[in-house]
Design goal:
single chain; 79 residues; alpha+beta; two-stranded antiparallel ribbon
Length: 79
């Protein structure tokens, strides 16, 4: 099957292609610093949380918590 119109456009227009790649990359996706993410990943491995749980801090201690509850914290303000 041949290339799509969009694919052909980006092949012919390198400047447009660079913008497309920049806009669709994960660059600004995460608002937390990598150190925060690394700390959570390390704790997740240490606590052996299941895939359906998040690592959360409760009363200053790390625990495995419900993913749905954790991600609902903040409600509409987080969106």
């Amino acid at each position: 099957m041949g290339q799509s119109k969009t694919s052909k456009h980006y092949a012919k227009n390198p400047k447009s292609r660079r913008k497309h790649v920049r806009d669709n990359s994960n660059g600004g996706k995460y608002d937390k610093p990598s150190s925060y993410q690394k700390e959570h990943q390390a704790q997740r491995r240490k606590l052996k949380c299941s895939k359906t749980q998040d690592v959360v801090k409760k009363k200053g201690k790390w625990t495995c918590g419900d993913r749905k509850q954790n991600r609902a914290k903040g409600g509409a303000k987080r969106k």
